[in-house]
Each structure stands twice: as structure tokens, then as C-alpha cells.
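[Solved] Which block belongs to which protein?

Original post:
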Amino acid sequence: MKFMLIVHHNEEAFQNIEKEKRQQMLAESIELTHQLHANGQYINASPLQPAATAVMVRVREGKPLLTDGPFIETREQIAGYFLINARNLNEAVSIAGRVPGARIGTVEVRPLIEITGLPDE
């Protein structure tokens, strides 16, 4: 099964962490991707640019409406993701617990709905 591990944390609090610790967390995340790859579980992963760089797109009455930045006020923003293969939810949760971002925020574990007909199948 494929799972998306969505990393949420407070961007402002993250920037207040000393630079060396932030770099260590990134190095740990990269190491985790290599471990997952060695186990055949890695699909993709990436941190995201800050929420302020986002553009929200809605279509109403056939017209696109664009809003800069996040459209909801929350304590935590989506900071990045891991797309993995896991045997079941328990294994995905176990992997989520190894994501460094879980120590400063939350890692949401969501199973993907697998559909046919997509590119690269």
C-alpha cells in the first residue's frame, strides 16, 4: 500500500531553531529516505517552500480565483512529505515516528487511493 506522510510544523518556530539543528534534521530525513529506499519502501520525499509562497486556486462558476499564501490560519503548516510503500497502516505509522519533523510537529499518515490509468504505471 502507498501512504503519504504529511509533515506539519510551525514555520516560525522551526526558523527559531538553531541552524545546525535544522541542518541535522534535514540530514536525518535524507538518511531515512536512504533506509526506506534500501527496504524498497521509498517513492518520493521533499520539504516544501514556506506557506507564504503558496498560491491557492479555486474555480467558481468556471473562473479561477487565486489567493496568495495559505487561505486558513493554523498553528502548523505543511512542511513536506514522504511518499512511501508500507505493508499496512501500522508499518506506515512506525515509519512516520522516524521522521525528524515528528519531534517538532505532527506527521499525518494517509493511505493513498490507488487508481489505474495514471502516467508512469
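(Second protein starts here: sequence line, then its C-alpha cells.)
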Amino acid sequence: MLTKRIIPCLDIKDGRTVKGTHFVNLRDAGDPVELAKNYVHQGADELVFLDIAATNENRKTLLDLVHRIAFHVTLPFTVGGGIRTVADVEKLLEAGADKISINSSAVNRPELISELALAFGSQCVVVAMDARKVHNQWVIHTHGGLMPTEKKLFSWAREAADRGAGEILFTSMDHDGTKAGFALDALSKLNELVTIPVIASGGAGQAAHFLEAFLIGRADAALAASIFHYQEINIPDLKKYLAPHVPIRL
């Protein structure tokens, strides 16, 4: 069985780490470079950087900030926000990213997934899926969760995997920031439908929620933000809690 991964997420706006609830009411969570250095020290398995305003502001990801974080990061580093082309990814990889995350651009032009997988390998391509339940269906949203689309989570996940995505980062907008636990039913179904790794995001509030994501949701990795940023849970303690139950890198 593959080792389960714990992944802190840096949501970036105006050069600062921010965190909200249900994708709104953002508040400052600290300097992204200092947070990244701390997560390396704590033993995080990977780090995700999402420039959450890039798409809405119709601009590229903050390359300088990516470079400054990458300088201090010795673990796999995923970057997303405002990525639209192969050239965009080339610049991010040159700045120090190991993987990239696409959401709005993939929904708008699904062929982009295949183009990036062909150019850089599937292992480089993470397709982020922000979804909330609408009339009992998980509906994909883009532009930082502001824009509902016609795509449904499960069919879109299958399509993304078929087009060459290496991982799916599923965030439940309904659970985001609530600290009430992950969307376990949706996670479990995703893992039935696709053979690529699924990262759980949205709702972590205590160590038990991570265990549920791994055992019930069958997630390959679990991502969180505020509970790590505000030191409500530290990663070494979380891993010690998980170790008797799931394979984890201590």
C-alpha cells in the first residue's frame, strides 16, 4: 500500500497566505515563505501553492513568489493559479515547481490536460476540482469557486483521468473551512471511479478527520490549510496519531 500523504496548502492573495470558509471571508494567515519553511521542518510530505486570485484577475501566477518558496522547499511542490498554456507551465517548473494544478482552464478547454501530460508527463499534472452540492449533485465551480459550471464532479473526474491527469485534488466547497470533516461519500466514490490518486481537501478540523479521509474516503492524500497555519494541529503529532492505522512517513 502506498504511503498516505499530508499536504499543507498555501492559498495566496496579494502575496499573502489567506484562508476563509466556503471560499469567502478570507483572512490573513501569514507569510507564505515562512510558512513553507516551517512545513518542511515539520515533515510535510508535499506543499501546494494556489494563487487563488490569478484567474479572476486574468493574470499569471506570481512567479517571483513561487521561486522564493521553492528555494526553501525540499519536498514536492505543486503550484496552481492562472495556468493556461504549456508555456505557463514551463515558467513555473523553471521557477521551482515540481507539479502544477489546473482548474478553470481545464474546464474551459479540457484538451489542456492532455497537452500538459504529453509535454511534462502525467505525474506533473494535478487537476483541481472545486465542487459543491446543487440539487443533490456535486457541481464543479471555477474562478475560485465563484462560477458554477455544467460539469459534474464524477464524470469530470473520469474525463480528466482519461485525458492524462496524474492526480485529482477534490475540494468540497460545502466543507471548506468548517472543520467538520471531509466529504467522505464523495471521496469514496471518486476512488471507485478513477485509478489515479485523489487528494482530499475541505473540512479538516481534527486528526480523526484525516484518518476518516484515508480509511473511509480512501483518499491517497489529505490537504489542509487553516488548522496547520494557525497551529491547531502540528504535522508531527498528526502523523504519530495516524501511524498505527495507515502507512505514513514519519
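Accepted answer:
You had them paired correctly. Confirming on the second one: The chain has a mean pLDDT of 91.
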